[in-house]
Amino acid sequence: MPTSVTTPREKRGLKNWQFILLFVAAIAVILVAFHLLSGGLFLQWSNVTGILARTAYPSFIAWGFCFLFACGYTDMSIGGVVVLGSFASCILGNWFGLPGVILGGLAVGMLLIFINFLIFTYSGIPSWIAGISLAMIYEAIAFLLKISNGTKALVSTSLAMEYRLLGQLPWCLLLLLVGLVVVFFLYNRTTVGLNIRALGGNKDVAEKLGINVKKTLLYVGLISGVLIGFACFLQQSYAGQTTVKTGLTSINIIFQPLAIYLLAQIIQKRINIVICVPICAFILYSIFNFLTMVGVPSGTLQEFFLGAFIIAFGIIGSRRVKGVVK
Description:
By secondary structure, the protein is an all-alpha fold. The chain has a domain at 50-251: ABC transporter involved in vitamin B12 uptake, BtuC, CATH 1.10.3470.10. The protein is built from 14 helices and no strands. Helix 1 (8-37) runs parallel beside helix 13 (273-293) and helix 2 (45-54) packs across helix 13. It is globular and about 70 Å long. The N and C termini lie far apart (58 Å). 40% of the residues are buried.
């Protein structure tokens, strides 16, 4: 009788499914433990839906990081872009309703991230240095809008409640699902996605293979700009109002999406990183929700835990990465 032979591809598929099952089981155990330790509050439906609603806009920022880091670039100005995009969503939303909410965030996100990549591509300045400089510029613009007599009333007003439905269930999850499908296709199934990842592997080799490096980087700016634009109007729709300070405080906005990306990067060997992002977002916000429930103050010890997570995930994730970050 002929014996069946398991191919290496089938073995990898089996290991991936085993990992997925163990991963899901581990998440379930952790959530049940959180529920018990919180006195039966954590898994209440209202609390779970609150966590789910909160995962939407950081997931779009983390997907933007997937494209940025895939080509070897770092943009520290994204927090400032989100602040300005949220302002635009609020102003245009209160003027023109839901279309204004969407248009404001998308327009500012796409424009500023694309400008960033024009600078990264043609200036020769390392992206992390240019990104910090741009973050200071965007913060200054946002602060001026906040204090100027002509614009203070516009940006200080909360987005009207009737225009905030995109930040609430089920709409935010619907946008998250659509984003997951589109980003997965762009990242994994298009020539642009393959070219972007090739740049991160080795820019010189990619150029010798015929990849137009500058054109590909501008595509990164365009794609990331759309994703950050979605994050802008989702953030404003969720929070209703955006605060701003100078001194690079806008960088705080990207810390949680960065932790999401780094955790997803660790798991991507078994689960595609695009799929990992919303899963990791749910895990991270579940942890912080639990810490709040058991009395760990936000803004102090929770920030300590977030910083520790980023360092730990970064160390683990960087063990598989060769080269330097631009």
